[in-house]
Write a structure and sequence with these properties.
There is one protein chain. The protein is mostly helical. It is 68% helix and 0% strand. It starts with a helix and ends in an 8-residue tail after the last helix. About 5% of the residues have low confidence.
Length: 120
């Protein structure tokens, strides 16, 4: 019982969301983590790979538990959307979107906190 434009915007937003969910994230999503030492040893490379895998698994678990929050973080981190773009997409105000993304990051933290052991 709403306006046709409301319905069309909802359809358009859902189609756009389905499109981004169907795309594979860019490979550089978890690109090489930089260590302070410029000379990377084979042990460092192994740690980098292990950390990448740990973060991937953690993010995957997060996306199973919090699909909407994971999608919002993907849009910003992997696809390079601005906070303003995300706000329009989510139909939220800019300040509310900033807070939402902050809450998304806080919810993600426990899923990847154990990966920090690779940095020590």
């Amino acid at each position: 019982e709403s306006k046709i434009s409301t319905w069309l915007w909802s359809v358009a937003r859902n189609v756009r969301l389905m499109y981004f969910r169907s795309k594979k994230p860019p490979e550089e999503e978890f690109s090489d983590f930089k260590f302070k030492n410029d000379q990377i040893t084979s042990e460092d490379r192994l740690q980098q790979k292990s950390m990448r895998e740990c973060v991937k698994k953690g993010f995957h678990q997060f996306s199973l538990a919090e699909a909407d929050k994971a999608e919002a973080l993907r849009l910003v981190s992997w696809y390079g959307w601005s906070i303003k773009d995300v706000a329009v997409f989510l139909d939220k105000k800019l300040g509310a979107t900033r807070e939402y993304l902050s809450q998304c990051r806080k919810k993600l933290k426990p899923f990847i906190a154990h990966c920090l052991e690779y940095l020590s």
